């Protein structure tokens, strides 16, 4: 693949992610798996696609200061400018003149001579004058929003909840690439055995403190390893591993996972139960239920019964007090996973949060009667938002006096996390900047 073809592919991927609301990680993975991209170019392709999405608002701020606001740009022209400026400003692998020449070539082929000279003019101007200084933006929230490419409403919302410094740190951390962590399937391999095998294959790895099944990968592509392809390990963020760790399951228990797809946590729970007992795993979408079945089959776990049912209607499926443990890993705004799925920050609206908080509470209330007395219920989300997290927990407690937060939850947390800044009476909010994880919330209720 020539440099020109590589840049054209990057542009196509970016347009696809933008137009179809596609998840960047899925779109990139499928392109890399297609075999069309030369392995030596994989790093640059991934970096430019992610980086351009991560920095979209910053890049648009730069473009706006060089382009007349009345000029209407085609989507592809704007995206071509964004990806070119991203490389010129934030990467130093390719010289500016080569980036500009290739952008002009693409513009010539996709548009006409006029488009090419417009693209050339904007990029040469930026090369000559440099990008505008964001320090001149007086309003602090607006400045963080532009500098870290987060929508202003989100910066204001986080600032109100966690303060300006924490918000700034969180927004900056969200610009970093996501670290990969994996979980071993302990019925097939021990963590030590997996670590030894990975080290021998040249991976740089560390033990996770979140789970005795967890391994952090500092270097190496796990998707290409036999351990992954043969179902000895699965990819899971360390924060998500806490759910099964804190659920305290035992062999032969009866467990409900109300929002289960694609099956990351439910398979971990099945491993903890040593593939004995029964887990009922639900998800709203039939298509996604297939993903749970596939993950369970890959990991050779047979106790998971997956079915498409709206979790708000589970009282029609099961009798009261029939489960020892319940997990509600609720649909949420996903604002904790912006490192890996940066496009989420542009698609989410503040009004989505009200709607999601209602669904989260409805699901909790629907499954609450199904839990046995003294049973444990974990509520978790992959978001950083006080309304969806502590807010939903407190509303649930107000309306369900037979439930309380299980105080042992805080004692049982891994020692490295016990004094985490995100601990409140309602549970544990993990921030992306604190423990090398996604932003994640979890808490444990006990039924009295
Ligand atoms: C955070 S994800 C769950 C991730 C999963 N627990 C895992 O570890 O792989 C939330 C899931 O809830 C599902 N969902 C959304 N609304 C639902 C509902 N009313 N009932 C059941 N599942 C729902 C979504 O389809 C999505 O797969």
UniProtKB/TrEMBL annotation:
> Keywords of this protein's UniProt record, alphabetized?
Cytoplasm, Methyltransferase, RNA-binding, rRNA processing, S-adenosyl-L-methionine, Transferase
Q: Give this protein's Gene Ontology molecular function annotations.
A: methyltransferase activity
Q: What is its EC number?
A: 2.1.1.176
Q: In the UniProt entry, which residues are flagged as the active site?
A: 382 (nucleophile)
Ligand binding (S-adenosyl-L-methionine): 259-265, 283, 310, 329
Entries under Pfam families matching the protein:
Methyltr_RsmB-F (PF01189), NusB (PF01029), RsmF-B_ferredox (PF22458)
A biological process (GO) annotation for this entry?
A: methylation
Q: Which Gene3D superfamilies match?
A: NusB-like, Sun protein, domain 3, Vaccinia Virus protein VP39
Q: Which residues form a coiled coil?
A: none
Please write the reaction equations for the catalytic activity of this protein: cytidine(967) in 16S rRNA + S-adenosyl-L-methionine = 5-methylcytidine(967) in 16S rRNA + S-adenosyl-L-homocysteine + H(+)
Source domain of life: Bacteria
Q: Tell me the protein family, please.
A: Belongs to the class I-like SAM-binding methyltransferase superfamily. RsmB/NOP family.
Protein role: Specifically methylates the cytosine at position 967 (m5C967) of 16S rRNA.
What is this protein called in UniProt? 16S rRNA (cytosine(967)-C(5))-methyltransferase
Please give the organism. Answer: Virgibacillus tibetensis
The upper taxonomy is:
Bacteria, Bacillati, Bacillota, Bacilli, Bacillales
Gene name?
rsmB
């Amino acid at each position: 693949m020539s440099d020109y073809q590589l840049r054209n592919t990057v542009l196509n991927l970016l347009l696809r992610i933008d137009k179809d609301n596609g998840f960047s990680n899925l779109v990139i993975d499928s392109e890399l798996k297609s075999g069309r991209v030369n392995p030596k170019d994989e790093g640059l392709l991934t970096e430019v696609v992610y980086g351009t999405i991560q920095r979209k608002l910053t890049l648009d701020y730069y473009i706006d200061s060089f382009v007349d606001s009345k000029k209407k740009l085609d989507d592809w022209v704007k995206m071509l400018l964004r990806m070119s400026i991203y490389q010129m400003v934030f990467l130093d692998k390719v010289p500016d003149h080569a980036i500009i020449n290739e952008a002009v070539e693409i513009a010539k082929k996709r548009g006409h001579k006029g488009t090419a000279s417009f693209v050339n003019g904007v990029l040469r101007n930026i090369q000559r004058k440099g990008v505008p200084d964001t320090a001149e933006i007086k309003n602090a929230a607006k400045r963080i929003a532009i500098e870290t490419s987060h929508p202003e409403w989100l910066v204001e919302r986080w600032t109100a909840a966690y303060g300006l410094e924490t918000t700034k740190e969180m927004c900056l951390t969200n610009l970093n690439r996501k670290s990969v962590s994996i979980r071993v399937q302990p019925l097939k391999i021990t963590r030590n055995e997996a670590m030894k095998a990975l080290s021998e294959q040249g991976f740089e790895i560390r033990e996770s403190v979140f789970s005795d099944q967890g391994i952090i990968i500092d270097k190496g592509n796990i998707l290409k390893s036999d351990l992954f392809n043969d179902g000895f390990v699965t990819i899971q963020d360390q924060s998500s591993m806490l759910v099964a760790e804190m659920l305290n399951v035992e062999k032969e228990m009866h467990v409900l996972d109300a929002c289960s797809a694609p099956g990351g946590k439910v398979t971990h729970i099945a491993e903890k139960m040593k593939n004995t007992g029964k887990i009922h795993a639900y998800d709203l979408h039939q298509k996604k239920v297939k993903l749970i079945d596939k993950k369970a089959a890959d990991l050779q776990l047979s106790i998971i019964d997956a079915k498409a049912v709206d979790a708000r209607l589970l009282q029609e499926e099961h009798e009261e007090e029939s489960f020892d443990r319940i997990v509600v890993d609720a649909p949420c705004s996903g604002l904790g996973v912006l490192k890996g799925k940066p496009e989420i920050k542009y698609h989410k609206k503040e009004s989505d949060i009200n709607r999601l908080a209602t669904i989260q509470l409805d699901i909790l209330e629907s499954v609450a009667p199904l839990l046995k007395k003294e049973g444990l219920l974990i509520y978790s989300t992959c978001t950083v938002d006080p309304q969806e997290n502590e807010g939903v927990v407190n509303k649930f407690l107000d309306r369900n006096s037979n439930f309380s937060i299980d105080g042992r939850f805080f004692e049982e947390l891994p020692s490295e996390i016990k004094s985490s800044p995100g601990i409140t009476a309602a549970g544990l909010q993990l921030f992306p900047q604190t423990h090398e994880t996604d932003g994640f919330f979890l808490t444990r209720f006990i039924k009295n």
